[in-house]
Write a structure and sequence with these properties.
Chain lengths: 311, 203
């Protein structure tokens, strides 16, 4: 993944300007708790419980207009808002960083409309983590909920444009065309070329799109200690992966699933060799690599600084 | 946080719904684990049903239907009127209801008559909210659970479901992904969820 200068590790956090809140949530004195009205929350909550009871199945719901554009996380945001409450601590990740404009907007909306909910950059402190492109590097715990915002929830769309047909294919677990598509991909590209949103089989029943996370993160869904909830605002779908559930990337025995290869590369900031790295084009055309999970990277950097200071 | 700690506190629609939902979500994600509901509704006319009522108020409104199984016993009719008036949910027959309220163990045929959804829309399968005897003192079936949300297997004494009920549940959930999802709630506010994916073996 190629990132622009915005992610240059030399730029401090203070360089990111927050947007005006008034552009987000309307008049601050007139809001429902966590922005959504209770009827909307109840519908989302009912859908979430059915989603958990049928892992990987896309439950339809009546998505609401949100103060952020659809496709920018409105589905995930609605799931988060229907779920959180006093005592929760929310972390929001956009492209792997908590400082991205979209993450700032979502966090601000929650801070303004949901009293009693704290926000954090720290994965360990969070009880709910909303993200689109990444899982945090560190493994989540049983008391944490991962919310993924999904722009394109239908994994069968690559082989079938009609919703009525994809629904029928899921109903019958008729995934032949997906397998043919993947086979053709292997013939053409030498491997399954899908870089993000890699299709997975959930609980041996449903093929599911895991949101645009890299292959690197797929294993974090498999037999996880934590619950994962997925929301798609534009296509009005909610789905879930319970903890301790099998999530298996689709592959062929002779062309096994592989994660991104970062061998020989390391993070220019913290030196990590075991994280998902973003490629950064620096001034002059050179290349650097840095952890995509900036919060994890920051923690490593400050831990190292403390060690150095202690010596 | 215990359901019995503040029995006279009225159910607060925004805060108590959110807190109750979170506990139900966690219980549904971890079938067979016993959780304690954080709220009650003291207005509930069903004896022992105040915590069950908190779940009902969290999930029901004018967009859904519910049914009352007669075996709910004393207070059942008042409970139906209370649910309709408080939530706006529409009272229908068992075979049409999104949410079915009953007392466990169930009479023969109740589980079989509940909505199971279609293959295309399995989420339209019903949710059974079962008022059961106290989880700690009630009679139960020693059971071993496996499935999503359960690391290896989980054992517990299932109160409120007879061996026949378990067989009927198995039949109702046989055509995957169609099925019914169960919430067992006791008078003290303890709750166990058994989604359709949970396999139950008597021990
Ligand atoms: Zn790093």
């Amino acid at each position: 993944m190629v990132i622009d200068q915005q992610r240059d590790p030399q730029i401090p956090r203070s360089a990111f300007r927050a947007p005006r809140l008034s552009a987000l949530a309307g008049a601050p004195e007139a809001y429902n708790y966590a922005f959504l009205d209770e009827v909307s929350k109840r519908e989302i909550r009912r859908a979430l419980l059915k989603a958990v009871a049928i892992p990987g199945y896309q439950v339809p719901f009546g998505a609401r207009e949100m103060p952020i554009a659809r496709g920018w996380g409105s589905g995930g945001l609605q799931v988060t808002l229907a779920t959180l409450g006093p005592g929760d601590t929310l972390k929001v990740i956009d492209q792997g960083t908590d400082a991205g404009v979209n993450a700032v907007n979502i966090r601000r909306l929650v801070e303004r409309t949901a009293p009693g909910v704290a926000t954090t950059y720290s994965t360990a402190e969070a009880t709910i983590i909303q993200s689109r492109h990444r899982f945090p590097e560190e493994s989540l715990r049983a008391d944490q909920i991962m919310v993924l915002q999904v722009p394109l929830p239908e994994p069968l769309r690559m082989v079938e444009p009609r919703e009525s047909v994809t629904r029928q294919l899921h109903a019958e677990a008729d995934y032949t065309r997906v397998w043919v598509h993947l086979y053709e991909d292997v013939i053409t590209n030498g491997e399954i070329s899908r870089a993000s949103g890699y299709p997975v089989m959930v609980n041996g029943r449903y093929i599911m799109s895991p949101s645009p996370i890299p292959r690197w993160d797929i294993d974090k869904l498999h037999q996880s200690a934590s619950l994962t909830l997925l929301g798609a605002g534009r296509e009005k779908r909610i789905y879930a992966v319970p903890p301790h559930t099998n999530v298996v990337p689709l592959d062929f025995e002779d062309y096994p699933f592989r994660v991104e290869d970062f061998s020989g590369k390391r993070c220019a900031r913290c030196g990590a060799t075991d994280t998902y790295l973003d490629e950064i084009i620096v001034n002059g055309g050179g290349r650097l690599y840095a952890c995509s999970d900036t919060a994890h990277c920051d923690e490593r950097v400050s831990a190292e600084r403390e060690t150095r200071n202690a010596e | 946080m215990s359901a019995t700690a503040a029995p006279s506190k009225p159910f607060e629609p925004v805060a108590d719904s959110q807190a109750t939902f979170r506990v139900v979500l966690d219980a549904m994600a971890r079938p067979g684990s016993v959780r304690t509901l954080p709220a009650t509704d003291p207005r509930c006319p069903l004896p022992g049903g105040r915590a069950l009522a908190a779940v009902a108020l969290t999930l029901l409104d004018h967009e859904v239907t519910f049914a009352i199984v007669p075996s709910l016993g004393e207070g059942a009719e008042e409970f139906a009127r209370y649910l309709a008036a408080t939530t706006g949910g529409r009272l229908v027959g068992i075979d049409e209801a999104d949410y079915v309220f009953a007392r466990g163990p169930l009479a023969h045929g109740v589980l079989a008559s509940m909505k199971r959804g279609s293959l295309a829309f399995p989420d339209e399968g019903a949710t059974l909210l079962l008022l059961v005897e106290d989880f700690e003192t009630g009679d139960g079936v020693a059971a071993s659970l496996t499935g999503p949300g359960i690391p290896d297997d989980r054992t517990l004494t299932l109160v409120g479901l007879s061996a026949e009920n378990l067989a009927e549940r198995r039949a109702a959930n046989a055509e995957v992904p169609r099925g019914v999802d169960l919430l067992l709630v006791d008078p003290t506010g303890r709750m166990v969820c058994l989604p359709r994916t949970t396999q139950i073996a008597a021990r």
